[in-house]
Amino acid sequence: MFDSTRADSYVSDAMSAEVATSPTATDAVITLTESAARQIASMIAEDRENAGKFLRVFVEAGGCSGMQYGMVFDERRDDDLYVEFHGVGVLTDPFSANYLQGSIIDFSDALTGGGFKIKNPRAVSSCGCGKSFEA
């Protein structure tokens, strides 16, 4: 069961994090493996609506562990952190960067357990599906 009080606490904690520990525009907050970059480039090429957009990786309150990952194709915003891997641009907002610093995104096309996987060194625990975490 989702505890909104607990999730709000995570959001509040992140917002009060010291600026000195926040990633900067020159830090690679997230790393994409070559496999993940290939899959993302393929998804962008398949849908004209995604042309000229970047992969946005973010966290938000929710999921069974308190915080959940999200990925969408989006346009760049003024405060975004940007990095490029294997020709794919990746955006992260400053709030999410505090939770995602050092994360690696991989992709597997295996029939069982395939899809995008995020390995996050800041996650204290993760749910079984890998889509939510506790920091």
Can you give a write-up of this model?
The protein has 3 helices and 9 strands, in the order αβαββββαββββ. By secondary structure, the chain is α+β, with helices and mostly antiparallel strands. It has a single domain, classed as Hypothetical Protein Aq_1857, Chain: A (Sandwich), CATH 2.60.300.12. Strands 4-5-2-3-9-8 form a 6-stranded mixed sheet. The longest helix has 13 residues, at 34-46. The chain is globular. Mean pLDDT is 77; it is low at 1-22.
Tell me the CATH topology. Hypothetical Protein Aq_1857, Chain: A
**For this structure, what is the CATH class?**
Mainly Beta
Rg measurement, Å: 15 Å
The coarse silhouette is globular
Descriptive labels:
single chain, alpha+beta, 135 residues, three-stranded mixed beta sheet, 3 helices, globular
Strand and helix layout:
Layout: H1 4-15, E1 30-32, H2 34-46, E2 54-61, E3 67-74, E4 81-85, E5 88-92, H3 94-100, E6 103-108, E7 115-119, E8 125-126, E9 132-134
Question: Short description, anyone?
Answer:
With 135 residues, the protein is of the alpha+beta class. The chain has helices at 4-15, 34-46, 94-100; strands at 30-32, 54-61, 67-74, 81-85, 88-92, 103-108, 115-119, 125-126, 132-134.
